[in-house]
Each structure stands twice: as structure tokens, then as C-alpha cells.
Fold this protein.
Amino acid sequence: MGLPREPRTRAPAAALRGDEPARALPAADAARLSLPMRALVPGLLPGLLPGLLPGLLLALLLALPGPAAAAPGRAALCAAQGDSERGVPASLVGRLARGFNLTGWIEGDAPTPPDPVLLRRLLARGLTHVRLPFDGEHLMPALGTGTGQAERLGRLDAALRQLLDAGFTVSLDMHPGDRFGALHRAEPERALALLDAAWAVLARRYARLAPDRLLFEVLNEPPNAEAWTGQLPRAVAALRVHAPERILVVSPGGPQRVEAMAALTPLDDPRLVYAFHFYDPMAFTHQGNDWGAADDPLRFLGGLPFPAASQDPAVRAVAARLAREGRADSAAELARQIRQPWTAEAIDRQFAPVGDWIARHRRPVIANEFGALDTAPLADRARWLAAVRAAAERRCIGWTHWDYADAFGFVTRRDGAERPVAALLDALIPPKAAGRAP
């Protein structure tokens, strides 16, 4: 997601243009069919069959595909992600299990620091990881956004110090904005050079700061997904010059969808954590968004529940309203996205390939963005958050909620006070699990 530019009473963190609505979930794989045994041994001589057939049959039965293998269990996936000797320590993987994105602190003309008392309460509740977005364009004078660099770096120093002193593990997220995005799409090599230079500044500045609890996230939602496939190894290599041992967070390009994560080839660097983002179905999580294009179909959605199916009364009521208002594009987008029912089971199926990826590659993975706009009904937001959290934890995938107190937030700011929304916090960390490892 992009960073909010100006604080307001309900300021959304604008989605990058690369964010795409959920595609219809694929149909389940057809059952595997085994060939008849006689088709597998057509050339055997009749005279040899009596002596050879028992052993041959056993060998063939062992070689044939049987029922689909059971998905790896949670304990096995947890064990697959920690490598204390040379990779990401298991203790760090544990601290990345639950967290939140803390926007609005570093950026903007009127940044809003979080309430330190509430931060300590959230840490005690079990939210041990903070992802701290930083607009890297302030370190890129070539983009004309290098003004105020010293001030923002000072804010960043103070924020990191406060979070680390409180006991959090922190991901410093390189989260550049529109100018970098446009450059990366148009001139990806020039953009990569600016990214490398910005990280050189930050890596040198924080070279000795909390090496076991401060991670560097190379680039949030790389705008040019095609170019990023080849650039990611080079970006990591450039950062390794200044941060040879630091744990880095890396991702596929574009909106970091779950499918891209499951298809990513891991790098030959054991000290990496892999990240993806999850906002499906977008018609639910982004209903009523008020940024971006004036004719964005999602802008005119509202009142959609979770779970939901196309024939549910609430969904039909929204479709009828859109028809009355002449919002054909919004009606078509809603119909497309809800072709498959929105359920916790559907979300779980989308996470399954990432669990398989972890089992296959034995690398740590986090879902370091997921959330639903506060334009969605509160109880439905809570149910969606609980479904995503459960799908992640079932596979030992750490998670980081987007965001803190902006439009996707689980904290409200009123009358100078910050308060967590109980229904959302309970969905993220059920009271019976508070303070315990997931």
C-alpha cells in the first residue's frame, strides 16, 4: 500500500496502482487417475510373468502417484523457517509472528507519534513486530524530493529508538512514493540506482543498531514487477555491501500477491525473510475507497459483508443500488469478484500454496500487509481479519496488519487519545491467546 500523504480524521493509505482485485479462485484440481496396470506392462514376455510379477507390481505401485500428499503440518512449517546457524534465527521468526504497520509517524507535515503507553500494551498483548514505512524518496534528490531529509531522518532515528527500546522487533520498510513508482516503471535501471544509493545512506546510518531486531525491507510493492524479477538479486547484493549480516525482507514485484509469492524462486542468501500482501477480495477490503481515480468501481461499493455469496440479501441490495444509480462498472466488478463466495475457507485455500513453498524451500515468510478499510461493517472486518490471521498461523506464516490508526487501522484517535478497537484486536489476537506464541 502507499503511504497517506496528509493526516485526516479517516485518512486511507492509498493503494498503489499495481493493486488488483481478487481473481476468481481456481477450481479444485481433478482427482488423479492411475493408468490400468495392464497398460504399464504391455511388453512382458508371458513366460517371465509368474516369477517377476510380484516384485514388479510392488515396484510399480510404489512409483505410481497416490492420493495427493497431505499439506505439511504447522509444526513442520515452523521448524522449516528457522536456521539459527547461518540463516534467520528461529527466535526472530517467532518475533515476526504478529505485528502491525505503523504509518503516519515519519511522513507528512504534521506527523502523529503513537501513544507509547498503548504501544507497550500492544506489545504485552502479543504484537511483537512493527513494520515502519519510510518514504525513500526523501533520500533521492534526483527526484526532487530530497528536501527535509535531515528532519525526516531525525524523526526516523527517534522512532526506531523508541520502538526498539520498548522491546519491538522492527522492519524498516523502504516505501517510496509516486515519483519513484513512475521512474521504476519507465526507467527501471535508473530507479534501481537511486534505491541502492538510498539504502547505502540508511545501512551506514544504522549499521550498529539492534542487529538482531532491526530488519531492512528492500522495497515495498516494486512498481515494475517484470523488471524487479531480475533486479531483486542485484538490489540485495548492493545492500549486502553495507549490511553484510543484516536480515533483509524481500518480495516479488507488483502488489506482492499471494500467487506471486508462491511462484517466487528464492535467492541464494539464507538471511532473507520473504513477504507478500493480502487484500482479497478487494471488493470487500477496499469498498468505498476515496482515493485514486474518480471512476474507480470500488469507490461506489459499500455495506458488503464477509462472508458473502452473490445471492445474499446484503449483496443483492448493493447490486440493486448500483443499478439504480447507473454504476454499471461497479456492478460488473462486484459480480465478477463475488462469482466465487467470500469465505474463510476460500482464503485458506489461497494461503495453501505459500505453505507448500515454505515446506519446499525452508525459508521464512510473512504476510506483512493485510487489512480492510473502516468503510466495511465492523463485525465483517473482524471476521475477515480473523480468517486471514487463522490462514496465516495455520502455516506458521507471520503477519503484520495494515495499518495502525489510519483508514485500515485497528486503533482510533479521538480527543487526543488512542484506543484499540476491541473487535479488531480480538480478531487479530483472541483474548485466550494474548501474550502467547501463536
Summary: Confidence is low (pLDDT under 50) at residues 5-69. The two ends are 26 Å apart (CA to CA). The chain has two domains: 74-281+342-433, 297-333. The longest strand covers residues 272-278.
